[in-house]
């Protein structure tokens, strides 16, 4: 059955709200969930926000009287989990509910679950349901995803004939204007009705009013700017629309937040911070024909002139001209009121001269962008534009026939904040003399041309520079140029982008002396062989990118790296490039959180030691590095997960040989102490404070064990202070036992019991020093020591520590931890050969499991378990092969021990050594299991090696 649709004719937010209030009581009782589409998607935030604000005071009809209004804004979509969290917060549920969500998020971090994939929690849904049960509510919901949800699954009780209602809309964080009624309606499954206003009747003033309300919604969901005037944000939205409608092919839209600041829309001391916060929130997604049709009806504060248009005078603040010739559609002079002017000649093969007198009244210009234009570089026509803050030049050339007189008064440079040169060889403007005039410049972008020629002159100049991009030079890197000190005095620089410098072989030496860079981008720097963060990079770096496929199509003003759709595609041409980098070390970059590496076939070593990386993902962050051999993560105390590629991708795209991890606070490592693995095997060395991180290692070892290569690992789960070094097996505990204890040894076991054994080993007063030392660790070793976080729960997890010990570990050493059991159901040490446990005061049974196993166990070494009543519990079903390989059974100082092992099989075929001391309550070493063959009770247990 098709979804009922209702078109309403309203001209503003208030009318839309009131019309919805009017039609709701008239709808069928079964209509509980309603979709509102706005004016082609435009204005939905404003209308739904207005409904949420006004509805509590409406009492005109019983159908509109609700106990609760629940407003959920998920336009900045993250996940279903986040949506459920917002519902819980809106309902002001007990802190324990939020704690459940937070704990599950933390656990998902360690499981490597991508944030967008995190599902709702049933337990929290039940609590939400209980909180709303019995009340009548209206939910207002902005859905930033592409999927319609059954809201009842999140907790709110919705039923077809209940009193509860929901009005919702798809609403991403960008502004929308399109005709997609049928497309949206066709994919709705849980919605009962569809309301949309007609878009055509909107006038300019109505559009402005709706846009103001949309801007208020943007402010409301942006905590950093909640105190600013929505009118300013509305003007920024208009400016973004102005850029979107014309300059989408020139990529100047990426500068929208910059332009809003330089145009004077965003003002004050916080202008830069506000522009960064708004970046990405003002984007438009428009149906082009609809947008053009709409713009004809309204009178925007901007003018867009294209071929076929004729200039008509008006109070335009922002003007964009695209032309094939110099006539500019009748525009002879930039109006005095204009604050932004964009001009593009569509003659890339032959830039055209600027019309004479064009800048005669341009004193108010704050933003100027010229594309494919020719003018005198010695005396540019905008020379006297004293308020100019943004100057962008794309493929402009020097007009040799223009005025060649050198003017000393370059008023256009004094107030300049952003200079963006793209394929424009204008040496004069970047001369030492002219840079001295640009004391206020905050951003310098140079694309193409002789980039590094200009960089050599930066020292001591441009003191307020915050963003520097020197990308895609058309001339080779000049090794003779002295750029060594270019960055040493740039204390305010935040973004440094050197993308596309294909001939650069080493990074500038002064880079390490720059004190403030937060973003370093080296996309397409094919010639760089070695990046060394130890003393070679600023420790302040938060984001780092090296994309072998080249520079991104658009820039970003924040520390966030460009969205994936702005990254170059993986084409045959890029696959054939010679990208030389073999080592990337970001060690010591303590603030580094964001990383993107892609298409680096020769990368052998990656060192992220000491960084703040939380999740290292080999499917989204480190991609296509098939030659990677060594990975170091030492001192990464924030690390929660490493997402390795799946089995098929692992064998094809990752050839890792050495992984070294230490997540203890303050951990460091001298590289000279690490032996490089020259074999084809995978070696994993890890010291992990939080046992949950073993989940990632379990995946790696699983993939490695299922590949043709061998895998060795030494995993220590402990948070012991770094000062004591890696955890080592302690000396035999007998060193700590005094003479009086030795004297009491005779009293531990009555003389009549095991007298045959006593006669074989000699006097029971044998010194404790003779007790055998702990077994040596083998190639696949796990050690668990004091301070291990979340240890008990992880011992029970199949995809974590418990599963790793069960499936792969050959030797295990557990000491100084407070757990009740070491091996628990369903695990049973399939590969285990040596097992050592000591000083675990809470252990009741070392092995407490119902599964078959311990087929390979050779040595069982147990010491100082104060509460242990037995080593292996009774009452379980085992195979006859259990303990078949046991050669050495050593037990000491277990005062509560009643028996060691239950017996359910006829012999210990490999047992050689039985050494038990200081076990005062021990009655039987072996005792019959609850289920055992009858002949054992009659004939006893045989020891083939005795």
Per DSSP, the total helix count is 21
Main β-sheet, spatial strand arrangement = 9-10-11-13-15-17-18-19-20-21-23-25-28
Question: What Rg do the Cα atoms give?
Answer: 36 Å
In total, the number of strands is 46
Largest sheet: 13 strands, parallel
Query: What is the CATH C-level name of the domain at 5-203?
Result: Alpha Beta
Give the low-pLDDT segments.
Answer: 723-768
Q: Which structural class is indicated by helix and strand composition?
A: alpha/beta
Helix content: 10-25%
What's the overall geometry? flat
Q: Give average pLDDT, whole number.
A: 84
Distance between the termini: 83 Å
CATH topology of the domain at 5-203: Rossmann fold
Judging by the overall fold, what is the CATH architecture of the domain at 5-203? Answer: 3-Layer(aba) Sandwich
Task: For the structure shown, list the relevant keywords.
single chain, 946 residues, alpha/beta, Rossmann fold, Leucine-rich repeat, LRR (right-handed beta-alpha superhelix), 13-stranded parallel sheet, 21 helices, 46 strands
């Amino acid at each position: 059955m098709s979804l009922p649709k209702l078109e309403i004719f309203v001209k503003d937010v208030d009318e839309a709200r009131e019309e919805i209030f009017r039609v709701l009581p008239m709808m069928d009782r079964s209509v509980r969930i309603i979709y509102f589409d706005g004016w082609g998607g435009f204005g939905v935030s404003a209308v739904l926000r207005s409904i949420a604000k006004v509805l509590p005071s409406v009492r005109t009809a019983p159908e509109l009287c609700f106990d609760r209004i629940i407003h959920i804004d998920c336009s900045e979509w993250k996940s279903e989990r986040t949506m459920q969290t917002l519902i819980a917060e809106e309902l002001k549920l007990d802190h324990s509910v939020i704690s459940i969500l937070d704990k599950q998020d933390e656990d998902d971090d360690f499981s490597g679950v991508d944030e967008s994939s995190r599902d709702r929690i049933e337990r929290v849904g039940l609590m939400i349901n209980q909180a709303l049960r019995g009340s009548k509510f209206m939910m207002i919901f902005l859905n930033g995803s592409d999927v319609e949800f059954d809201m009842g699954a999140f907790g709110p009780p919705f039923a077809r004939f209940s009193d509860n209602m929901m009005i919702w809309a798809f609403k991403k964080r960008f502004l929308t204007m399109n005709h997609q009624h049928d497309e949206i309606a066709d994919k709705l499954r849980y919605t009962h009705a569809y309301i949309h206003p007609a878009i055509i009747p909107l006038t300019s003033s109505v559009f402005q009013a709706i846009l103001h309300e949309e801007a208020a919604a943007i402010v409301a969901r942006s905590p950093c700017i909640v105190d600013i005037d929505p009118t300013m944000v509305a003007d920024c939205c208009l400016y973004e629309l102005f850029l979107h409608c014309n300059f989408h092919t020139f990529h100047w839209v990426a500068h929208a937040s910059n332009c809003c600041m330089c145009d004077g829309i965003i003002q004050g001391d916080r202008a830069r911070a506000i522009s960064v916060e708004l970046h990405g929130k003002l984007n438009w997604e428009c149906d082009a024909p609809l947008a053009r049709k709409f713009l004809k009806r309204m009178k925007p504060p901007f003018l867009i002139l294209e071929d076929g248009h004729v200039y008509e005078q008006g109070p335009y603040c922002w003007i964009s001209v695209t032309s094939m010739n110099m006539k500019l559609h009748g525009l002879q002079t930039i109006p005095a009121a204009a604050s932004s002017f964009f001009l593009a000649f569509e003659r890339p093969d032959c830039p055209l001269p600027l019309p004479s007198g064009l800048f005669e009244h341009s004193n108010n210009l704050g933003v100027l962008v010229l594309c494919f234009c020719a003018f005198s570089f010695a005396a540019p026509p905008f020379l006297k534009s004293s308020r100019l803050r943004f100057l962008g030049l794309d493929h402009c050339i020097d007009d040799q026939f223009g005025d060649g007189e050198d003017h000393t008064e370059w008023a256009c440079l004094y107030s300049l904040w952003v200079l963006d040169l793209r394929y424009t060889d204008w040496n004069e403007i970047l001369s030492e003399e002219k840079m001295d005039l640009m004391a206020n410049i905050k951003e310098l972008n140079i694309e193409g041309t002789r980039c590094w020629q200009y960089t050599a002159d930066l020292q001591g100049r441009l003191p307020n520079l915050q963003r520097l991009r020197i990308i895609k030079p058309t001339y080779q890197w000049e090794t003779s140029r002295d750029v060594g000190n270019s960055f040493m005095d740039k204390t305010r620089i935040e973004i440094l982008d050197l993308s596309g410098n294909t001939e650069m072989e080493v990074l500038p030496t002064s880079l390490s002396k720059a004190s403030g860079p937060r973003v370093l981008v080296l996309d397409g720097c094919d010639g760089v062989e070695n990046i060394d963060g130890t003393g070679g990079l600023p420790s302040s770096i938060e984001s780092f990118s090296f994309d072998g496929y080249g520079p991104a199509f658009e820039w970003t003003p924040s520390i966030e790296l460009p969205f994936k759709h702005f990254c170059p595609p993986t084409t045959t041409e890029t696959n054939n490039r010679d990208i030389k980098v073999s080592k990337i070390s970001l060690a010591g970059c303590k603030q580094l959180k964001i990383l993107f590496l892609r298409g680096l076939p020769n990368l052998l070593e990656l060192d992220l030691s000491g960084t703040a990386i939380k999740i290292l993902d080999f499917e989204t962050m480190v991609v296509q590095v098939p030659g990677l051999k060594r990975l170091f993560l030492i001192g990464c105390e924030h690390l929660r997960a490493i997402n390795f590629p799946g089995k098929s991708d692992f064998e094809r795209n990752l050839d890792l040989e050495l992984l070294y991890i230490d997540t203890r606070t303050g951990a460091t490592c001298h590289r000279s102490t690490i032996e490089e693995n020259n074999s084809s095997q995978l070696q994993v060395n890890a010291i992990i404070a939080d046992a949950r991180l073993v989940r990632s290692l379990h995946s790696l070892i699983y993939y490695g064990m299922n590949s043709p290569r061998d895998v060795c690992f030494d995993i220590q789960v402990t948070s012991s202070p770094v000062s004591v070094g890696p955890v080592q097996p302690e000396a035999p505990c007998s060193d700590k036992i005094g003479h009086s204890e030795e004297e009491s040894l005779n009293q531990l076991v009555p003389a009549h019991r095991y007298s045959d054994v006593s006669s074989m080993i000699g006097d029971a007063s044998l010194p404790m020093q003779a007790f055998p030392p702990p077994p040596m660790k083998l190639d696949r070793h796990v050690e668990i020591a004091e301070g291990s976080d979340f240890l008990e729960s992880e011992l029970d997890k199949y995809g974590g520590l418990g599963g790793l010990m069960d499936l792969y570990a050959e030797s295990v050493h557990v000491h100084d931890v407070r757990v009740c059991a070491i091996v628990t159901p369903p695990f049973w040490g399939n590969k285990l050969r040596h097992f050592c446990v000591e000083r675990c005061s809470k252990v009741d049974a070392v092995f407490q499991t119902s599964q078959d196993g311990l087929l390979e166990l050779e040595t069982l070494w147990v010491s100082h378990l104060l509460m242990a009543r037995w080593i292996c519990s009774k009452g379980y079903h085992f195979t006859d092969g259990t303990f078949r390989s046991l050669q050495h059974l050593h037990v000491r100082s277990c005062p509560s021990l009643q028996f060691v092992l239950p017996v359910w099989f006829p012999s210990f075929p490999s047992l050689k050594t039985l050494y038990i001391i200081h076990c005062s309550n021990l009655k039987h070493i072996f005792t019959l299991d609850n289920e055992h063959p009858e002949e054992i009770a009659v004939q006893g247990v045989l020891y083939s090696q005795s």
